[in-house]
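Dear support,

I submitted the protein below through the web form. The confirmation email said the job was done, but the results page showed an empty box. After a refresh the structure appeared. I'm attaching both so you can tell me whether what I see now is the final result or a partial one.
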Amino acid sequence: MTYPNTQAILSLVQDALEKDDLKKAIQILQTLKPADQADIFEDLDDEDQVSLLPNLKTQVSADILENIEDEDAARLVAKIPEETAVRIINEMEPDEAADLLGDIHPKQAQSILAQLDNPEEVRPLLIHPDESAGGLMTSEFLALRRRMTVRDALQAVRSWQPDKDQIYYLFVVDANLKLCGVVSPRQLIIAEPDTLIMDIMDPDVISVKAGMDQEKVAELMLRYDLLALPVVDENNVLLGIITIDDVMDVVVEEATEDIQKLGGAQPLDEPYLLTNAASIFKKRISWLLLLFVTESLTGTVLRHFEGELEAVVALSFFIPLLIGTGGNAGSQTTSTIIRALAVGDMEIGDALKAIWHETRVGLLLGTAMAGVAFIRALTWGSPSTLSITVALAIFVIVVWANLLGAVLPTLASRFKIDPTVVSGPVMSTLVDATGLFIYFTIAKAVLGI
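What the results page shows now:
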């Protein structure tokens, strides 16, 4: 398969629109796959989007709204005629339609919902928070009954005509609609036609409650290699299903938030280029102020050891080297621990094991870095006593940074705090201040100042 050159196709679409050749622009777009259509559509001007969307095939318009950013879809729906929005949303998956309606003005959402062909498929999904299992699930699914025969089940599947992403598994319910098992399409195909579903189903089915956080849902599906996951209420009544494509969107979203937090900022609510400068300022300023105050500890340590610096000016030459190495070592450890916690390689109860593990790693890294630092100090023309001071300091700082990097994320998790908030700049700032204290304390002992 060859991937289309979306930039070249975008130029063709824009050229057609500049010439008022709407028909040609539509023809170009409708030859592409939904993901490529969405990429090109998002790069068009607002006016072009508004003129194009109502004139595309309804299913193509629905696919585009499902694939572009939620904020873009909501903004676009607000600009097109309501009857057009109803026509397009009718073709969207119930969960995608619910997400879109939840992002537009409540009055407009209620008006559109009342005009949909099957509002009962969308309305229950609106009551669940977007970042919960209920917000991820779709109510468009086929549930088999325990006492159905395989013949009847296959006929039900043929009548349903599911999309390709809705036939991973078929879930089984009892007379009260309570989840009681799961069968795969393969089982239905190879079983004898008169076999009862209850005789071939797997009763050990994994499910989640509607209120579970979407990140936990993603972890569960990835852990057990699930392609679909049933969502139930408190009475185990089947409410909907979550498919793997929805979970992959969650994984990307959560990874984006974590990366932004790693940089010492609050996650953005919208795509970067759609977020105005004032909003980004608000997301970053609180962390910068906190880090500024914390970093002032470094200045406090320097003032405390002002006399030692005046006695041996050469001590200051090695400050950037020491605190930089300590911050890097700590960041390496925190990123490793945070990832291990995220993917389930370690639990909060493994904190002592992680500390011991990082102690050994820190001793090895500290020894290696101390040797390099000793040689580097000598090549700068430093006396042997100062070179020994630098070597000892970097050894202790690296070990300390590794310990700090192991302890802080596990402590944060223990107190239900996102571990990413103690990584990156926060870790570097803490290591800076404590590293300087370690350095000057060793210098006083070795140099006798």
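Response: this is the final, complete result; the empty box was a page-load delay. Residues 352 and 407 are 9 Å apart (CA to CA).
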